Amino acid sequence: MGTIRQDLTDLLKERALDAKEISRILSIREKEVSAHLEHIARSTTAEGNQLKINPCQCLACGYIFKDRQRFSRPGKCPKCRHTRISRATYQIKQRS
Ligand SMILES: [Zn+2]
Questions:
Q1: For residue 76, how far is its CA from the centre of ligand 1 (angstroms)?
Q2: 89-93 β-sheet, strand order
Q3: Fewer Cβ close by (within 10 Å): the C or N end of the chain?
Q4: 11 CA distance to ligand 1 centroid (A)?
């Protein structure tokens, strides 16, 4: 577990990734990615860095899930009820 989180932390310091890309790179299930991200969000804050979330967006109407704090994908758009929703991407912004 610790190694995966360290690898994921290193990856997110280099570039923004979504949960599907992370699951493929680290060979873990997409469902597990959210648990790791929750942990990483806390540890990066403790280090003075920030986990930046580029939120999910509805591909039908453009609605952005700005207030969504959980690391999972919403089922449908609250505005138009469409289910085609882009994945959020995550990146660690390091203290300069
Ligand atoms: Zn929508």
A1: 8
A2: 17-18, 89-93, 50-54
A3: C
A4: 31
